[in-house]
Amino acid sequence: GRMKRVTKAETTCQYCAVGCRFELYGKDGEVLGVRPTDPEATPANDFSTCVKGKFGYEFVNSPNRLETPLIKEDGEFREASWDEALDLVVDRLSEIQDEHGDDSVAVTSSSKATNEENFLNQKFARQVLNTPHVDNCARLCHSSTVAGLKQTLGFGAMSNRINEDIGETDCYLITGSNTTESHPVLATRIKQNVDEGADLFVFEPRKIGLAEHATQYTRTKPGEDIAWLNGMVRHIIEEDLHDESFIEERTKGFEELKEKVEPFTPQKVEELAGVSEEDLTNAAETIAKADSCIFGWAMGMTQHAHGTRNVLAITNLALVTGNLGKPRAGVSPFRGQNNVQGGGGDMGPAPHNLPGYQDPTDEDVLEKFESEWGVRPPDRVGLRLPEQYEAMDDGNIRGMYIMGENPVLSEPDIRDAEHAIEKLDFLVVQDIFLTETAQFADVVLPAASAAEKYGTFTNTERRIQMVRPAVSSPGEARTDMDILTDVAGRFGYEWEYDGPADVMDEISRLVPIYGGVNYDRLESTPEGLQWPVWDDDHSGTPYLYDEEFNFDDGLARFVPADYAGPVEMPDEQYPLMLTSGRVLYHWHTGTMTRRVEALMHHVPESFVTIHHKMAEDLGVEDGEYVRVESRRGDIVVKANVEDTADPGVVFIPMHFAQGAINELTQHELDPTSYIPEYKVTSVRIAPL
Ligand code: SF4
Question: Which ranges carry the 4Fe-4S Mo/W bis-MGD-type domain (predicted)?
Fold first, then answer.
């Protein structure tokens, strides 16, 4: 039953990856609210939380929380006991594997869950099911960041800290991030520092909130970032403003880069990206001359069929200006979900990485895992999430176990994803609500929210922080850890953990960058630990690459970014460019925020933002419904007439099931990271 007294937990926000900390209060099993905690213990938010952190916890108390396992019979769900539901899961997955081979099942992990649960999720896939097909939503948000940064710098993560570096730098280049709405507390940090004199350059198709505070806001054409980034590098080299000693001592490949950026003259950049020579050279020169600069980005850079090349291009700019391996500088991918850095990345629920980004084809790595688990993990790279949906469509993947994700809203071209899911012989969904995806499941397992469990999250600055329960779970809901442990046991694998602390001990034995992480240290270090934490005596790594980059020779690599633009360009049939993003009051596919009245009050439904000229042409007024169509599908949404972008560019947020933008998007993939081209879609709009 639920706890019957006021309880207080010092914990970490379960929305975005800024990782704000606060005290979460509960009474009679319900979350009451949050209160800022001791500034010492809150490295990311020593002054506040955003509206989601403050008012966004009502979903925990929702009467719609799942309270018992559900089994679908004749198309209807009925309540079931845990025994019945889990036995069915084990029977059906076993049958499918017996008939079609171990690789016919796949597992999806969740960046909302803790590190420990994500570790166990991939262990369940690899040890228990012997399938390499495990992946998570990081594939769809920053896989191109990880791929780009690993190639150039060695680690696929933010190189610097939030407060001491982002909060104190001399200069920013922010692109492809609507920071004010997606990472509010981080944006406040940036605005404060800009008020104190730092330069801020915002390159973005839409005039977002942060642009109001910028030294220079430059409107770019969607999907043309390689052009202006290469153009900046070219200009800096031409003006002799590059950091020669840094390049000489700490990098390799500069000559090739220099050659490859040569075609990106200011004229060429203007033609491709719509960036004027004045804006380009002013930003390039200010960035190159600044003592320190932070390069910040999010999905506007990553979600393209050339996402990895975008990341290479911005990293080259950071390297030529010597902005790595020192305080107040660095490359800052702003990660989205609360625990996508740790749970989605570090813990290795990914087909090409074992935990800690270790190679599943490396014999030494395999032996290490085998000696810990008693079973050799599959020694090959599995299918990435979008490939898994193709395999489902082809009948090669027939069973799927989804923990805490909502792919029928988050996959590109969701009609196709739905179709693939419908073809499955068996689908298990483990979640806190009966999500759009759970509706398709054969078995639904009720999970605990992060307000109801212990564990750790790793925020966007690689900081591992404690998560603690303020309330107990509703009904029979159980933590992901307990459910996975139970299922593994029914498959004959006894996991003997006393709690998440034991799982972290196993992680520290297997994952070198978490080598010195344990609960004793985390409990006595309220500000958390930033990886790599190599061993028990190592205090962690506030900023990366102080002495060397993460390669044997210690040198960063310049990897030139060859030009690529959007996959689909506007034409007569579909003359508008649609781009996507977030709004302050919602989060991802909205499974939590759409259940919070205080947030729904502000933005209750999906919309399309169109320029007033376009609205006039269409004869549409603000607030009227319109039909938005692409080659994949069509949706009806409210028109929001606002001149934030060029007349030919329209915007739809990603949070809604009604008017879901992914009815329109396409599944063209980045060849390196397999991230889909979410950000640019050709559409047309018609009044109803
Ligand atoms: Fe939570 Fe992010 Fe808001 Fe901080 S900025 S309170 S981590 S949603």
Answer: 6-64
